[in-house]
User: What shape does this take?
Amino acid sequence: MSQDLDTSPPPEPPTNRPLPPGDRLGTFLARPYVKHIAAIWVVCTLIWVPIAYWLAGNMGAGPAASKLMGALKETVFVFTLVSAPLMGFVLAVILYSWLGWGRVSGDEVPDLKNPAIKGNPIAVTIWTIVVSFLAFFLVTWGIVEYTVVNNYAAGSDNPEKLQPLEVHVTGQQWLWSFSYPEQGGISSETLFLPHNRPVVFKATSKDVIHNFWIVPMGVKIDVNPGAVTLAGVTPDTLGSFPIRCAELCGMHHAFMQTQAVVLDKADWNSWLASMGVTS
Amino acid sequence: MTTTATETAAMPVYPKNFLRSLRRQNVFTAFAGGIVGFLVMRVAASLFFRGEFWHGDSNRIITVAFIGWGVGFMAGIGAFNGVFRWFAGKDLDHAEAEYMAGKDLGVKRYFRYTTDHKVVGIQYLVVTMVILAIGGTLAMLIRTQLGISMELFNPNTYNSFVGTHGVAMVVGMILVVTGPIGNFIVPMMVGARDMAFPRLNALSLWLVVAALIPLVMSLFMGGIRDGWTVYQPLAIQAPPGAVGYIFFIVIFSISTAVSSVNLLVTIVRMRARGMTWSRTPIFVYSVAASVGLALPFFPFYMYSQLLALSDRTLSTSFFIPERGGSVWLYEHIFWILGHPEVYVIILPGIGACLEIMVVFLRKPLFSFRTAVVGIAGIVALAGLVWAHHMFMTGWAPLAGYPFMISTEMISIPLSLIVLVMIGTMWRGKVWTRLPMMIIYAVVFNKIIGGLTGIFLSDVPADMHFHGSMFVTAHFHYMLMGTGLFGAMAAIVFWFPKMTGRMFDERLGSIGFWTAFVGFQITFMAMFAAGNLGMPRRVFQSSELFLLSNQISTVGAYMIGVGMLIFLAALISSWKSGVIASSNPWGSQTLEWQTPTPVPLENFPVLPVVTSDPYQYGVPDPYQVERDLETQKEPVA
Amino acid sequence: MSAQPETNELRSPTTGEPIAVVARRNLLGVLLLIVADVSGTIVLCMSYLYLHYLNTNKSWLPEGKESLWNTTGMNITWPGTVQPAVEWHFWAISGGILVLMLLFWQGVRSLRRGSSATMVSAALIVTLGLIGLSVAQYLQVRSFPFDPTDGGYASALTVIGISNFLHLLLSAFLAAAIWNRTRVGRISPENPYQATLVAVWLTWITISSVILACLTFFLISPSTDPTLFGTFGS
Assistant: This one.
């Protein structure tokens, strides 16, 4: 392109010395479209803030029923906010391209006299660094948070360092059943859990793959035939929470639901007593 | 781009000695052959597996009958003629090859085993439209059921709608750019007279047609009740209709392998003189990347289904845990294809967008090399991320770490392609024609799909979203919002070259924007439902999700109406649109430099390429200014 | 694509392009098809080894079971102890393919040196040999001391046998075609590329067969305490 320079007149009389880098950035920022895009960028980024709040707030249709779920909500919130600037920037550029830099319609091929920008090492480098940094952040966050979540699942978040309660989860078409081996193998089709005591779920299936999902507790694990899978949580909210099957398991997959009921110590003991367990 | 005369196109005159049998063979003899083959093998199988004609092991009988269908169909269309002639040493001479390419056959050539890549492209377009129409109709039925709180279908029927919708759409999406555009345009874009292996090209198309019938038949034999992933051992409980799915996938995989080889060899070996890799259009790169991924990975899909078929018919136990099988084995084999397949779908769409936006912005690609690096990066990483579909299977919890890393790494090459897109838009006036407008929609959808993909690639967030409607909405943003909309841009853009008529952009715009708005309504509401905790593939859901489902259903009807309008625009423009000139968009790629309608061997004179096809625009004034500054300033 | 070739270089009768150009194109095509077939072999190895290491329900090489609840609804009688297949059968078949492959390459080499006669006889012998090997492969599958229903090991070996069998039949067809085409002069010292392509394919078949035969090194599952179906213990 530089060979053609002699024939095309410069738009402004050139100065006799190159601008220092700071000034070059200054002239770049002074261009009108840069200001406009920056303004749109800010707006497009801020759009994501309420979205992040809504997403994290409504995960599982309500407040978290365990610290584990809290960690999941935090992850979604942070990821949305961290990616917002990049998403907002792309959105701003396509909006400005759509409306801002001018448009021509008609059937004839127009001569738009657009600048032939072929590559811009600075832009590519900055973009790559920003994106790589973002990806690096997401990976790091994911690794740390996954470790945290695994520790929660292993019962690290219970205040009194109680021994985990083992619950055997059996899935079959289209029914959940739960048995408590330490309580003499009593079994139930509703999941009863003690408050603030870690629980370890061992899950297996009698026929096809199911997925055991206590929605507001963030417990989710496939229930496979021919394998035993593990999950765990410490419920820290009293109440009743939906359990759904999250893996297509045949005709009544949609209705393979039950409740997880978290009981305080007195209710838990009386439930055990009603099941004939003496402790 | 300059073309010069290098070789004349005159052909030696051969005596007319056409393939006798091929003359009589067309799609009707194919169907007749298929039906005869099906019935003969059906009866033979019933006799062989004695006493089992009406009852007993129908899996084996159906399998054998489907094989009869496939062999009969391919024999009826004439796919085996060439093989036997090759065996006998009677190779085609030039006149025969031209006859097979449909010379002087008029409309008839669209109904035969025609080797001309342009005919195959049009055939692919029609077949893909049929597949997408099947999938779309089922989508409407699914959404209707989910939008009301009463039982409209039997749950099993509903599940088979879900499964068939999934597989039809996945296959339709794989075909929609690579089939019509890849076959019609790519050979012309690289400056070749035809594909490398014209007869394999016809083979790949007719295999898809042969495979389609068992898929439709399976709907009436119990259906595909297990989602398009047909997880074992649920699938083995399904009635013999599932064999239709297996047959469809196996044949389709063969077709994909054949067509991938064909496109790759065409791209690598048959580029015009002077078309170095740096002068090859970016769309060609994206198609090569797509088929380059499909080639090694599709056999995994095929073998997953062959092993499932073996479990059904030979009572082996690959996926039956009571007898030593493993459900994780199936999931691995399936997803080793299953994730690269996503890139097989979206890469040609993205490549087409890059190729198209250049024309409507009259600007060169912002950075050709960055785009190539992005595509290459996706190809390199695509095979290393499959297990993120298995984070919640309990297969190996620690494997979550490496697969989380590899999955999030893939956002870097993908973002490089986005950079090239917005960089090409940067400071450019835009020629507002429909394909360019669609590209804005594609980039928007890609942002949403990309962001939600970040959640799903992260194990902790996936602990909530896995298996929920959130996932469904996410991949619809990627596959439909990016892939299908990109394909719509490509079809509108190349329509003048393929049909010789301009696309009716007024009607097309109404259709597209209706579908776009409906798309946002449908899948934004679906994100909400999934976030609240609604599992995928459910038949009915609780009251909690009813509102978002109703909104989704309204949006889905809007998509349906929009797509029908778009289809009407396509059909009416094809029948009676404005006659197009040979290069209505003023594009510089080779396919626009030939006359429309395109002559049999594409180029009267083979082109010679002297530069890349992106010589648009004027020198950048800011750059000129800066160059002058640096030139005048003595080095200090 | 010119009407009259300037040199006496051999040209394809179909497109009029020089044979060397067509040969390069076809070689790439065959190599790419082999890439697809490699994936198939990987799946077979993967399923064998995966089931081998998991030994779900102690059914890799089951040691006698009572009747089972069966998802397929088929009438399956569970065997007593399953005996492993005879190992040297695998190696004999692989060795046979290896010998035939070398013979075929020998034919191709002499074809390139200018003699069609060796190629004709080599291709004929290879065709008959491959047909013989596919019969042997069939007999091997039929002579397995177990049924396909007898657990993971039996399943994997049966399907590997079927895969080998189909590969052998396809290769026999290709070799027969080379025999016939060389005989009628379509493949000649000036135009030998299709014989080379089939030789390349046979080389891959040999490699694939040897890889699959190597699976017999992994017989007894290392998982001695695997998950039992439908229970929480092992």
